[in-house]
Amino acid sequence: MTTESLTTDTAAESNSALGSLDGPRQSTGAGAQRILIIERDSAAVQNLSGKLRQAGFDVSTLERSEDALTAVKDEQPDLVMLDWDLPGVLAVNLVRYVRRDPCSRTPRLLGLSTFSGEQQVVAGLEFGLDDYVIKPFSEREVMARVRALLRPLKAAPAKSEYLSFEQLQMDTSEWLVTVKERKVPFRAMEFKLLEFLMRNPERAFNRDVLLERIWGRNRAVDRRAVDVTVQRIRSALAPFSCDKYLQTIRGLGYRLSSCPVSN
């Protein structure tokens, strides 16, 4: 999947593009956290959905992609597990639809793909995935990724906890970041990385440490996932001239600091 193959799509075009798969749609009972699996491999879906249900999640599965947009809108899942190997730009169109709404409570997106090369992994993250799992995958690994993505929703404190750094303010329970009193939307991993750095200001952390702390120990994606997420945070902060606080420290890693970087 390459950038050159992508075009700007309207909502109607996205609905048309997401309509080429076969198979019934299935759902399970109500639950606090909802997961929607869009995957053509029915055997893999059956095994995975069973494990997720046993873990207490409310799981819906789709093998017909024309129902995908409707399912996302109607069911409002907390997490969408998406077959990233859908033909053409089907998967990208769904990600575009989900990301079109700047609300910070949009679903987390976990891509499932047979492509394991660094370029494909980084491209998936840059297109808007929160995480990326390489097929064939172990159920244990997927469960760890799912829990990592949904942990902020499940483990949010009963009372709001506020963090502050210079002109950045964060409400951890509301999943909200404000800069100069303006709301700034962040995706799941961006929020978690920024939260970690705001809790540990003026300290530099290398990529391996950040991967373990933010993505979890069962991480198989290349370390450049950290670079992509840092760049997204900087892009969101740039309009407020606050991107300078998220600094690259040569030979060490990244830090959140108000001190100038010395060369």
Q: What's a quick, concise take on this entry?
A:
The protein is α/β, with parallel strands linked by helices and 263 residues long.
Q: How many individual β-strands?
A: 12
First CA to last CA: what distance? 38 Å
**Major pleated sheet:** 6 strands, mixed
CATH class of the largest domain: Alpha Beta
Helix content: 25-40%
Shape: globular
The helix/strand class is alpha/beta
How are the strands of the largest sheet arranged? 1-3-2-4-5-6
Outline the low-pLDDT stretches: 1-31
What does this entry look like structurally?
The chain is α/β, with parallel strands linked by helices and 263 residues long. It has two domains: 3-154, Rossmann fold (3-Layer(aba) Sandwich), CATH 3.40.50.2300; 162-256, Winged helix-like DNA-binding domain superfamily/Winged helix DNA-binding domain (Arc Repressor Mutant, subunit A). Helix content is 38%, strand content 19%. It is built from nine helices and twelve strands. The protein has a six-stranded mixed beta sheet with strand order 1-3-2-4-5-6, sandwiched between helices. A four-stranded antiparallel beta sheet has the order 7-8-9-10, covered by helices on one side. A two-stranded antiparallel sheet has the order 11-12. Helix 1 (11-17) runs antiparallel to helix 4 (90-100) and helix 7 (188-199) packs across helix 8. The longest helix is centred in the middle third of the chain and has 16 residues, at 139-154. The radius of gyration is 19 Å and the shape is globular. 34% of the residues are buried. The model is unreliable at 1-31 (pLDDT under 50).
